[in-house]
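Continuing the batch. This is chain 6 of the set; chains 1 through 5 are on the previous pages. Same settings as before, nothing changed between runs. Recording input and output for traceability.
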Amino acid sequence: MKIQKAAVLGAGVMGAAIAAQLANAGIPVLLLDIVLPDNPDRNALAKQGIQRALKARPAAFMDASRAALITPGNLEDDLKKLKDVDWVLEAVVERLDAKRDLWARVEAVAKKTAILSSNSSGIPMHLQIEGRGEDFQRRFVGAHFFNPPRYLHLLEVIPTPKTDPEVLKTFSEFGEKVLGKGIVVANDVPGFVANRIGVYGIVRAMQHMQKAGLTPAQVDQLTGPALGRANSATFRTADLSGLDIIAKVGSDLGKVTPADEDFTLTGWFTAMVEKGILGDKSGSGFYKKTKGAGGKTVILNLNLDSMEYEDQGKVKVAAVEAVKGRPLPERVRALYAAEGPEGDFLRGVMNDGFWYAAKMAGNVSNRLQDIDNALKWGFGWEQGPFETMDTLGVQTVIANLDAEGRTLPPLLAAMKASGRERFYDGNETVTPEGQPTPYQAPYFILSDLKKDATKVVKKRAGASVVDLGDGVLLVEWHAKMNALGEDQLRAVQDAHKLVQDMGYAGLVLGNQGEHFSAGANLPLVLSQAQADEWDELDESIKQFQQVTTSMRFSPHPTVAAPFGLTLGGGAEFTLHADHVVASAELYMGLVEVGVGLIPGGGGTKEMLLRFTDQLHPGQQSGATLLPAVQRAFELIGTAKTSTSALEARSLGFLRDHDTVAMNRNHILQEAKRMVLALAPDYVQPTPRTDIPVMGDAAIAAIKSALYGMHQGGYVTDYDLVVSEQLARVLSGGVGNNRMAKVSEQHLLDLEREAFLILLGKKGTQQRIDHMLKTGKPLRN
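Output for chain 6:
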């Protein structure tokens, strides 16, 4: 079984978004929905679904051109086309009768080897296949995506007792490797894994909030990033999901679960739903956006006593303020031990979550890590419930549950009897029965790998060199936002030397932080400029250029594995690697103009070189070089940042031969494999000396365009200052109107000179200072 073409039945919000994710992965999709009466376009609903996905924010498509892979149709005329697809996903209305009727029709026409799935979030899979043939039931497996499917990593795969193990294996591998999802194998029980535990947590938080006398805004402070959870925390998540959805799921689960699980909704929550206060879909929920003075957006908070919206300003909670800036384990331990109503609330909510997760072990899923992953990937938690109990100490949690008079679930009773403090211990975890069992992640987890001290070959405060095995070294940056400073540069130099001295095959540049790198250490750069340390700055930039370009000009292969924010210097390191294995979610850009600078680590040089090389050989003369210069100027001068790896390729940041991986968890493995593939025949490149440039003609062309933009108010006075320095580098700085050929080093020297000139100007220092204080660019 191999999935090369798919069909999605149902073009609603989820169906269309899932179709978009399939298209992102390069899979052709047939999108079908019902025929609207009295509408001459029988495919209207499917077409509307595609348009909705194209307009969605955040964007459902990684590149708008991928929409061409979706073919709209309808369930009357086009169902017969299912004979040509390898996977059929149902995403129609959440009614069992509707799903059963549709499956009966699908069974008659679908390819006899096709995998069949439902995206239902609540209707058990085994009920949907009742009455279907044995072969149909064998090929059926639930596939529950989370909204929005592009961004939420979780895909719950739900086999029934009739599902063929080979179908489960094939589909799980497809979901993980092709669609880029984190796979959790769920049991076919109400709510599956994430919704069962996640909605329980939301319902219980409402009950504890009422008991503690807190407000929704205070609860969101306590249950958000401070606790290692998503920014949307509890009540913002409810607004995003829809209060009516929370109410229905909670009510449905309450009907089919034991009384001690208590999915009882509070009276005020039920009243909100009855009044049509449903969250974002209705325009207001626990929060409401409005326009304040000067058109500024103001977030109003719902007062649950008066049911009126109030501007409560920035809500601060003492327990959260007390842990700011501390590592997650310290924050979790401090919050769990907090005093007063805030601490009572947190312990109540956390103990409920721990008790329930342990009770669900072996029920919703047969592995503890699946429960942890479901909450991390579906709700944006940094740690799952079992990982959080490990942070606190399992016996500490058990003692607190005992003190509350709770009956321990079998898993916790077994842990109490054994005295174990952790669910995860090295390469071992426990089963739902509390018995130790071997555990190995399906991909590199650097924190696990580094538990073997011999794997850390060299360590600095902000970076490490790690042995990935098989002769491949990894440079891992681990500073805040992976801002680039001395530690990060020296770690790359350390690694190059180790590769050569110790006979390693090559080098990977990557990490598993929140982002690959947000760029240069701006506070350091600004302080040196304000202290007039120009010789030191000149030497620092020269060293930075030497290290970024060493990714290309070394006697061994280098592979960069970027993901998330890959900005400024992070982008320049990536641009110079022999090969790039990029996460599909790659936000890459040379953004230095936002702080009044130009790329100084080879980025300006590299984009000019790449775009010039892409011209036809006969065009590399005189004014015909202008399109390459203009393209580089526009990319850098507007600080254009990709919204995906697909766009990064179209912008020129990635080359055709670079690899895009849908699953970020796999990029280090693929990067290692690529180093090993390149190493046997690797020949060290030499710097180019034949780059054609336009000289003054390029500067004149750019200045002409800038004049019109300035007159039209599109660029500021200081934008002109920065742009003129950028134009000078892109011109080659040869000072004449005739084409010349220059070296890479010549362009690097121009970059460094322009960078220093701009850094010495008041306008640039104002931009850097404003960015550091506000996180936003200054338009001076």
